[in-house]
Amino acid sequence: MQTPVWLKPGIYGAIGGAAAAMILGFSWGGWVTGGTVRQLVSDGSDAALVNALIPVCVDISRRDPQGAERLAQLKGSSSYGRGDLVIKNGWATVPGTSDPNRRVANACADRLASG
Description:
The chain is mainly α. It has helices at 7-27, 34-63, 67-76, 82-89, 102-114.
């Protein structure tokens, strides 16, 4: 069987065009893989959860009978140890859970120290 003369360059052009479209799409077009989407969604939901739990942590700290003393100690401590103080005081243990959340503790410590 004879193949037309134009078939070989046409196939090469189609393959090259598809490769160029994929390269341009993933680098400049904003295309992402399924794994990247899952990671972005997970990071976003974790951040939203932490942001939603910061007011709960602040409220727990305000209801603490020794809250004023502990807050003064928190503000006087270094920034990297504040999250540990929030965990130690029990402010990062959200009602309904048994363990404190480290990310909530760090974010809550930042909020308490700044305000």
